[in-house]
């Protein structure tokens, strides 16, 4: 059995859990919580970066980074399901995945700067830089929400929106009504989205 090391709040791990469900692989993956901040957690031996998600294969080797894990799961399921084989659809899906993951990257940096660093040491310009990335990405997605069959790009965008809902109280929703409607439909169509909510 495969083992997925994860944290409930991680949007990257959520992306993998949803993809696994849609690919029919959820029953073949044991979900095991990890504490990336704990030096004693075996995660650091499984993944030298100490990051989640990490997928432990049956031979004990590990895959890490959600993009690599998604590619592996798609391969296990026969290929071309979450990551399309046709180049035009493939690169649209991968671009959307990069956009969703980029929103998460920026949101995590804001969170670390705002909550992990002592108040007197916070760098407002760094927060503004990351917020600008999120705002531009949300504007682009609101102007053209993901379309067509659900793929890894749709999942990444949904997980990014779910993460900024979790960490920033859904502040994005007031300015992006098309994207709100898209996420509501995604949540209705993909039960694993609600089932993996932190």
Q: Which key features would you list for this structure?
A:
198 residues; single chain; 4 strands; Glutathione S-transferase Yfyf (Class Pi), Chain A, domain 2; globular; alpha+beta; 2 domains; Glutaredoxin
**SS-based class:** alpha+beta
**Overall shape:** globular
Number of domains: 2
Span of the ends, CA to CA: 24 Å
CATH class of the largest domain: Mainly Alpha
- CATH 2nd-level architecture of the largest domain: Up-down Bundle
Mean pLDDT: 96
What is the element string, with H for helices and E for strands? EHEHEEHHHHHH
pLDDT < 50 runs, ≥5 residues: none
Looking at the structure, the CATH topology of the largest domain is: Glutathione S-transferase Yfyf (Class Pi), Chain A, domain 2
The proportion of residues forming helix, as a percent range, comes to: 55-70%
Strand content: 5-15%
**Record field, number of beta strands:** 4
Rg result: 17 Å
Sheet with most strands = 4 strands, mixed
The oligomeric state of the chains shown is single chain
Strand order of the largest sheet: 2-1-3-4
């Amino acid at each position: 059995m495969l083992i997925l090391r994860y944290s409930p709040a991680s949007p990257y791990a959520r992306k993998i859990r949803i993809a696994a469900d849609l690919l029919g692989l959820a029953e073949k993956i044991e979900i095991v919580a990890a504490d990336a901040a704990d030096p004693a957690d075996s995660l650091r031996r499984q993944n030298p970066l100490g990051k989640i998600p990490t997928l432990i294969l049956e031979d004990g080797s590990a895959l890490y980074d959600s993009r690599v894990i998604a590619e592996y799961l798609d391969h296990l399921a026969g290929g071309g399901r979450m990551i399309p084989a046709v180049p035009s659809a493939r690169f649209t899906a991968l671009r959307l995945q990069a956009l969703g993951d980029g929103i998460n990257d920026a949101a995590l940096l804001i969170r670390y700067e705002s909550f992990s660093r002592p108040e007197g040491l916070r760098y407002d310009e760094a927060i503004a830089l990351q917020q600008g990335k999120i705002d531009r990405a949300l504007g682009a997605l609101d102007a053209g929400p993901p379309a067509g069959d659900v793929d890894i790009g749709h999942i990444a965008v949904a997980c990014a929106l779910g993460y900024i809902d979790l960490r920033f109280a859904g502040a994005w929703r007031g300015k992006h009504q098309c994207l709100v409607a898209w996420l509501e439909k995604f949540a209705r169509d993909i039960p694993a989205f609600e089932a993996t909510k932190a």
